[in-house]
Specification:
Length: about 210
């Protein structure tokens, strides 16, 4: 139990720490950017939660298929749940890129903040579809027992790629919130690509628990 749970616990701890570091980085850019980022992250979490729920369903389905040694079904379940999550996130995220100003007015009233957050919110709505693969396959790989691999990919992508470049683009080079948010979407796309390749290679079918 400890061998399976510890990597995921470490991953969740450093993911939360990374969010705190991201707030600090954006705070170095400006107070207005920090205020908008707080709204954007809460809205992104609103979209992420249904995908995580579907990912947990994938965990159950994949684990059940692996227990029956039906590796083809386990592989197929991963992609089937990704498709459902992508469609669901596309529908939920549509208002974010269609009417971002209207969504932001629910949280802030300053026109400058609404303008500042409009394009990052559009990117959030569109990027969630890309993120569906990472969100679901992360949980599916956990169900297959690839806990340490998931931890290494997730933390490496966040701490070695995203956060250093976010600091470089934001506080150092002064490109602002939009650049940081674009980089975050790129990071999630990279994570989705890595997890998709891992899932296709099926090395997880040979893990002994």
């Amino acid at each position: 139990m400890l061998r399976l749970s510890l990597p995921n616990s470490v991953q969740q701890f450093f993911f939360a720490t990374g969010i705190t570091a991201l707030f600090w980085i954006i705070g170095r850019v400006g107070t207005a950017e920090l205020a908008v980022a707080h709204v954007l992250i809460n809205l992104a979490l609103f979209l992420i939660l249904p995908a995580i729920g579907l990912g947990m369903a994938a965990t159950t389905l994949v684990s059940q298929s692996l227990g029956a040694e039906d590796f083809d079904s386990a592989h197929r379940w991963g992609w089937e749940v990704v498709k459902v999550a992508a469609i669901g996130l596309a529908l939920l995220g549509a208002p974010f890129w269609l009417v971002p100003e209207l969504i932001l007015r629910l949280f802030v009233s300053d026109p400058a903040l609404i303008e500042l957050g409009s394009w990052p919110l559009r990117l959030t709505g569109l990027g969630m579809v890309i993120d569906a693969t990472a969100l679901v396959l992360t949980q599916a790989l956990l169900g297959a027992g690839a806990n340490r691999t998931v931890m290494a990919v997730s933390l490496g992508n966040q701490w070695l790629f995203f956060l250093p470049l976010a600091y470089l683009l934001g506080p150092v080079l002064g490109y602002g919130l939009l650049a940081i948010w674009s980089l975050q979407i790129l990071q999630r796309g990279l994570a989705s690509a890595i997890f998709a390749v891992m899932w296709q290679r099926r090395d997880w079918t040979r893990i002994q628990l």
